[in-house]
Design a protein that fits this description.
The protein has helices at about 25-35, 40-55, 95-105, 115-120, 135-150, 175-190, 210-215, 240-245, 260, 295-300, 335-345, 375-380; strands at about 5-10, 15-20, 60-65, 65-70, 75, 80, 110-115, 150-160, 195-200, 215-220, 230-235, 255, 280-290, 310-315, 345-350. By secondary structure, it is α/β, with parallel strands linked by helices.
């Protein structure tokens, strides 16, 4: 909160009123209110600004294998993924989903998947646009909306482009050199914003731990020749992404997903942990799905040595047309994985708070929980075994 009564900019792209209220003193607030015997629109706008600042969460840092706030209190983040900004520049029901996830489901963390091409307005070369200005302004509003409700937001680089703007836009094996431009801009924009964390890359896979850490040549070969995909590009590696974030002066907590589609964390404890001397620390991300076996081999060895964050977790009944390897659904899995998360006191965000992005926590835009996944997750978040 700034300390003068004026219009001003405290964050790129955002105008708001600034109040001279040291630590939001009630005496000063009532003295100010007394100036307005007939409350005006200006007064209520100032009140709203004050309340929003009061709700904003404290900054986080890694303390051992846990997160702590600026007062030294241990903080546990639990929430949901709200996708669609990776495939749509305007998103799909994102604002109301944020309100439902925080207000009703009691999430304190929202993971927002993003696309580096949409961020810069380069997803459709040749088409008229505003170079991503409106998209970035939307993300600003969503960040503010989450923070105003006391929540944290994890900005996740979910889709990239294999080093060619506007081509091959989607999920890839590794970040590319254009990902550096994304993180340089995002880090500069949100540095100092206590509510914001950064997830460097969604699901690294099919490279060595050396390439994961330090970068190198990446080859992607699609098993379906009819799609004609065979990509070769350079990845800067996860350490370079982290260094780019820190070069902006941003100390925000960062998430680095492991290998095997951000599942395997063994390399992190075998010499490939990232170096973060200028920031508030790194969480190491794992994504847990029923077809990922042997948690005690791939994930558990990291717990107790590094902070572990479950960035995605979900289950669903298999149906015809789904990938064959996903045909492993059992009703018991949801309870088992949630017990694993709770027993180990892991921070986590369930996938997904969207009725069409499976495994879905909700069945409609009224945010009705799905029986197979939404009901147990809502119960875990609210602490109510009967939550529906």
């Amino acid at each position: 909160m700034c300390n003068t009564l004026a219009f001003g900019v405290c964050h790129p792209g955002r105008l708001f009123f600034r109040l001279r209220f040291a630590r939001h003193s009630p005496d000063r607030f009532h003295s100010f209110a007394a100036m307005y015997r007939t409350p005006s629109l200006l007064f209520w706008m100032l009140v709203a600004s004050l309340l929003s600042a009061t709700a904003a969460p404290p900054a986080l840092h890694v303390a051992g294998t846990r997160l702590a706030d600026s007062r030294g209190n241990t903080v546990r983040l639990q929430g949901v993924n709200i996708p669609s900004l990776e495939w749509s520049s305007v998103g799909e029901h994102v604002e109301e989903s944020i309100d439902a996830a925080i207000g009703i489901w009691k999430a304190n963390l929202i993971r927002l998947p993003l696309s580096q091409d949409r961020w810069f307005g380069k997803e459709s070369p040749g088409k008229p646009g505003d170079a991503g200005v409106s998209h970035r302004a939307l993300v600003d509003r969503l960040v503010n909306r989450i923070a105003a409700q006391g929540g944290y937001v994890l900005l996740d680089l979910h889709w990239s482009d294999a080093g060619e703007w506007g081509r091959h836009v989607g999920q890839h094996s590794m970040p590319d050199d254009n990902s550096l431009a994304f993180w340089a801009e995002v880090a500069e924009r949100y540095k100092g914003n206590a509510a914001v964390l950064f997830d460097l890359y969604n699901e690294p896979h099919d490279v060595s731990w050396e390439v994961w850490e330090k970068g190198g040549l990446v080859e992607e070969r699609n098993e379906d020749p009819s799609r004609g995909l065979h990509l070769r590009y350079h990845s800067p590696g996860m350490q370079a992404l982290l260094d780019t974030v820190r070069a902006s002066g941003a100390r925000n907590v960062v998430v680095a997903g492991g290998l095997d589609w951000a599942y395997d964390l063994r390399g992190v404890v075998e010499g490939h942990a990232l170096q973060d001397k200028k920031g508030n620390g790194v969480l190491y991300g794992t994504h847990l799905y029923p077809w990922k076996k042997d948690w005690d081999k791939h994930v558990t060895p990291a717990i107790g040595h590094v902070p572990v964050f479950v960035g995605e977790v979900g289950t669903k009944p298999w149906k015809a047309g789904d990938p064959a390897h996903e045909n492993v659904y059992t009703p018991e899995w949801a309870g088992k994985v949630l017990a694993y998360i709770q027993t180990n006191r892991l921070d986590w965000t369930a996938w997904s708070f969207h009725p069409s992005a499976s495994p879905s926590l909700i069945t409609d835009w009224d945010h009705t929980p799905s029986d197979y996944w939404g009901v147990p997750v809502k119960a875990a978040l609210t602490g109510s075994p009967t939550a529906k």
